[in-house]
Amino acid sequence: MSEWAQNLPPHSEEAESAVLAAMFRERDSIHEVVQLIKEEDFYLPENGIMFRVMVEMNEAAEPIDLITVTERLRKMNLLEKAGGLKRVAQVAGAIGSVYNCAHYAKIIREKSVLRKLIHATGHISDRSFEDADPVEEILDEAEKLVLDISQDRARGGLVPVGEIVDANLERLEKLSQQTGDLTGTPSGFVDLDHITSGWQKSDFIIIAARPAMGKTALCLNMASNAAMGDKGVPVAIFSLEMSKEQLVQRLISATAQVDQSYLRTGSLPEEDWAPLVAAIGPLAEAPIYIDDTPAISIRELRAKARRLQAEHPDLGLIIIDYLQLMGGSGKSENRQQEVSEISRSLKALARELDVPVIALSQLSRSVEATQDKRPALSHLRESGSLEQDADLVLFIYREEYYFPEETERQGIADIIIAKHRNGATGSVALSFQKEFTKFGNLAQYAEPPRDLS
Q1: What is the pLDDT of residues 112-148, one digit of tens each?
Q2: How far apart are alpha carbons 429 and 399 in whole angstroms?
Q3: Is there a catalytic annotation at residue 241?
Q4: Which end of the chain is less congested by CB atoms within 10 angstroms, N or C?
Q5: Of the residues 26, 32, 241, 382, which is catalytic?
């Protein structure tokens, strides 16, 4: 056993006693410390038991002092586990300032984090020495353990509105010094950006459609528009349906405007080689990162997204193609509940990383039972809680797909903004070139909004 492993884990008995003493003396101290620590953050189990009991008594509006707490512990058969009457009395009379209880609680939490890290690294070290599992599996667990500790440490509390107002004023001052309309990651489609002002940080966006409407093509176009634009915004794409090679083939087709059937067969006409070569250079340099792990879980996706953001702090967009193919936790009773769980997790990911997250979603056949085949929010309600979780809901509709003979809108796709939590709804028309899997502008606005992100 190494020398460090023989030492006691990090802890502060003084801070633990001081927090509990403050809770005995002042009820407001309880309200303050419960936002910072939990029972399991205490190193000494008896201190954790006293903490839990006093919190429960506070929630029940019961008086808290040495006599009432001791009596409650006795009734719950916990007095001996809490160290006995003498120990409870010692804690109640411990030295410490009520006004510093939050500081004491933070010391307890930091020591708890260090102990959890020691436990996690010890567990991973044991698995590594055993050499019985695939390296990828051990790495995934290591990342998950550290991620869970980090997220628990980052749990927040109530914030005075004044601090939030100040942050908003700073943001407004920054924006007012610039001209233009875009405050988020650009989609590259003028009319769409005019309504959304770009994809906003921490927004969870659903783009839904029936098969063959062009969901993947639209998001690949958005990815290349953002990554190959003036600012070169880093974009992450998690593809659960197509391989990374197929996605890149589509990106090349759309960028070079070369028929993708030629790319599949390799039989390119002579005149297509020049635009192909010209397109590949900038595309190869674009900060687009693709992961094609099938049935990826939200845990694995979150870990990979966090790692990419650590490497590229200016990560501006995450795309998942598509949501229903993600693996669930296996704890849900049915697939609809599982999709709802995934949806809530993706929304939490957008907030955690402060990055817009676009999830593609497959609509059911019920859309095609309507007369005009146009999707609406009611069709999304069949897919768990997607509608309520999303900040924006967009549908793709191509009339020519359903009514090829009757329509006058050949080569036109409607992007229907059915829900926009912080802005207007409406419909935007884009051109669609199927042979290039490329959407384009049919812009009403002569100048694209300037990117302020």
Answers
A1: 999 999 988 888 888 889 888 888 778 878 877 877 7
A2: 11
A3: yes
A4: N
A5: 241
